[in-house]
Amino acid sequence: MVERLQVALAELESEDISVRLVSKFYHSPCFPADYGNDFVNAVAVLDVFLPPNEVLMHLHEVEKNAGRIRGKRWGTRPLDLDLLAQENCVLPNPDTFLRWHNLPLSAQLEETPGEIILPHPRITDRGFVLIPMRDVLPDWVHPVTGKTVDELIAALPEGACDGITPLDLP
């Protein structure tokens, strides 16, 4: 898993995208539980010269190169790259963001947005995103909630960060 993520980070580099910072790599239990294998998670800060939809298309191409076939939502996959945020963009608009942000987990399992939603509507729910994000963007402020990464981590429910551990890499 670590090697696959390292290869993906290298593949992200292009004329319009460069990897500026990468967090530590973390072992994270599968989410939702019983939906597949555990993960190795990291957050990368990219310098991009593309609009968000083109960045997302590039991420999907890197996933495809790793053998990902999009099927069952949150099903087993060899690689999952998410565009978490781009600058302070709220896309497509604050109301649509809030609809997806407030969607109950049961509905999240069934529905998939037909357009890019930024910031990623699940950032605030996921320790496996926020903990590595704190490594590389400790001063980031969510453009809708106004909360810092540390405030978002503190607001997670008890146990949300259980099993998220940094990996010792050479």
Automatic annotation (TrEMBL):
Keywords: ATP-binding, Folate biosynthesis, Kinase, Nucleotide-binding, Transferase. Signal peptide: none annotated. Its EC number is 2.7.6.3. It comes from the Bacteria. It is an enzyme of class 2 (transferase). Pathway: Cofactor biosynthesis; tetrahydrofolate biosynthesis; 2-amino-4-hydroxy-6-hydroxymethyl-7,8-dihydropteridine diphosphate from 7,8-dihydroneopterin triphosphate: step 4/4. It holds the Pfam family HPPK. GO terms for molecular function: 2-amino-4-hydroxy-6-hydroxymethyldihydropteridine diphosphokinase activity; ATP binding; kinase activity. PANTHER family: 2-AMINO-4-HYDROXY-6-HYDROXYMETHYLDIHYDROPTERIDINE PYROPHOSPHOKINASE (PTHR43071). Catalyzes the transfer of pyrophosphate from adenosine triphosphate (ATP) to 6-hydroxymethyl-7,8-dihydropterin, an enzymatic step in folate biosynthesis pathway. This is 2-amino-4-hydroxy-6-hydroxymethyldihydropteridine pyrophosphokinase. The lineage of its organism: Bacteria, Pseudomonadati, Pseudomonadota, Alphaproteobacteria, Rhodobacterales. The gene is folK.
